[in-house]
Write a structure and sequence with these properties.
Length: about 475
């Protein structure tokens, strides 16, 4: 049992130490002179307290005038963004140096904001907008809306650049749409001049926002603006860029699976960029089976239309052939109007109805029933699309892309070496992944014919492509 009498002197001794500490603090702060800074605000400089022995209540606080002159390092105040809606209460910003800290006061009576404080925050400031934050981007206008996402034109508050904000709504019971997760995960690893760049990912309780580079239009809108077929030189540059970007993704075992003009963005300089990887898949080896509900109907290959779920990079190459024809001819290659049956009939009308000789294994596909299809013989492509004959080697390249038997289709890498591209500068094949083809001298888009005129003589970004989001 403790003796109360023994504890009395200890309590008095502790109280004495506290009084002594209080007196030391008063003396130290009493030596500090209050002065005005250049802007008329009160500025106080105090020494930094040592915290090494704070538990023993015997910390020593050096008065300001005992610090050697060479140790008095002046620290600049931090900048803060001026908020016109903030109430005029006192603001205190502290910055510590090795031996001293400057505390800047703005009192309610001053009335005006310091010019130094009014400037925008530096990137290191705690109040600065940062990447990965919802308030780091300003929405400028709505570009399109789909079943699970809305796309906005936006502006970064960090660097002032224009961006495209794909805002994906999260359903509490469903969670994040798998297509959004897939698109974000794949695009994070794809860095190429002809693939849209994913800048940032913002996740909140209600939304997942993918922040992309802003590109001015897409190929669908570009062709709508220049009907009747594009300038043949521009078709060649667009196709070269499409194959270049696709070859990059295929070499990484990634299938896009939704190639169509709406998903090919066109910048104001003519750069083509693959976009909308919501249906893309990383194809592992050995092959797996995949869903046959991929690719918009007009650009879906016959093997997938017939129910095949075993496919590889040849899936995308059929879409390349369809887009190639559409750029040259000015109309979709196979514009099915009804259903899958109608789509297949349009394909077989040009390429011929397949059989085991022309397409080994076709009879084993789930939806192939010979009696369901009219028997057509194959035609020269120029009979269906006459403008292919106006450009050297265009028909040959198109025919090697539009092969019903998947294994006969040209790969993206092989297509880049086709004679159709033989008149382009050799340096284009030597570019690094992130280099634009327009960095090569004399490579540029040609002026298109006027509205409503035939090229052969004879605004809004992500809008249409992302306004039709179905997946």
């Amino acid at each position: 049992m403790c003796d109360l009498r023994d504890s009395q002197p200890a309590a008095e001794k502790k109280l004495s130490r506290m009084k002594k500490l209080r007196r030391t603090l008063s003396e130290s702060f009493g030596r500090i002179a209050l002065k005005k800074d250049d802007n008329g605000f009160d500025e106080i400089c105090v020494t930094k307290m040592s915290t090494r022995n704070c538990q023993g209540m015997d910390s020593v606080i050096k008065p300001l005038d005992t610090i050697p002159e060479d140790k008095k390092v002046r620290v600049q105040r931090t900048q803060s963004t001026f908020d016109p809606f903030e109430k005029p209460t006192s603001q205190v910003k502290r910055v510590h140096s090795e031996n001293n800290a400057c505390i800047n006061f703005k009192t309610a009576s001053t009335g005006k904001e310091s010019p130094k404080i009014r400037r925008h925050s530096s990137p290191s400031s705690p109040t600065s907008p940062k990447f990965g934050k919802a308030d780091s981007y300003e929405k400028l206008e709505k570009l399109g809306e789909g079943s699970y996402a809305t796309v906005y034109k936006g502006k970064s508050k960090v660097n002032g650049k224009l961006v495209a904000l794909k805002v994906i709504r999260l359903q509490e019971e469903e969670g994040t749409p798998f297509t959004a997760i897939r698109e974000a995960s794949l695009l994070k690893g794809l860095k190429h001049a002809n693939i849209v760049l994913l800048h940032d990912i913002i996740h909140t309780k209600e939304t997942l926002t993918l922040v992309f580079e802003f590109v001015h239009t897409d190929l669908c809108q570009y062709m709508d603006k220049h009907p009747g077929g594009l300038h043949p030189d521009n078709v060649k540059l667009f196709l070269f860029q499409l194959l270049r970007g696709l070859s990059y993704t295929h070499q990484r075992y990634i299938l896009h699976r939704d190639l169509k003009p709406q998903n090919l963005l066109i910048s104001d300089t003519g750069e083509l960029k693959l976009a909308d990887f919501g249906l893309a898949r990383a194809k592992s080896v050995p092959s797996h089976t995949y869903s046959n509900e991929v690719v918009t109907l007009w650009y879906r290959p016959p093997d997938v239309l017939l129910g095949s779920t075993e496919y590889s990079t040849c899936l995308d190459m059929w879409g390349v052939g369809c887009i190639f024809i559409e750029m040259i001819q000015g109309v979709a290659a196979f514009p099915g109007m009804k259903d899958i049956q109608d789509q297949l009939e349009r394909i077989f009308l040009v390429l011929g109805t397949p059989n085991e000789d022309t397409w080994p294994g076709v009879h084993s596909l789930p939806h192939f029933k010979l009696e369901r299809f009219t028997q057509y013989s194959a035609k020269n492509l120029r009979q269906a699309w006459n403008k292919l004959s106006y450009v050297n080697h265009a028909e040959d390249l198109a025919s090697k892309l539009l092969q019903c038997f998947p294994k006969n289709r040209l790969s993206a890498q092989a297509a880049l070496s086709h004679e159709y591209f033989s008149d382009l500068p050799p340096r284009l094949w030597e570019l690094t992944d992130m280099s634009s083809i327009f960095s090569v001298p004399n490579v540029r888009l040609q002026p298109e014919a006027g509205e409503g005129m035939k090229v052969f003589g004879k605004n809004n970004i992500y809008g249409k492509g992302l306004s039709n989001i179905k997946h």
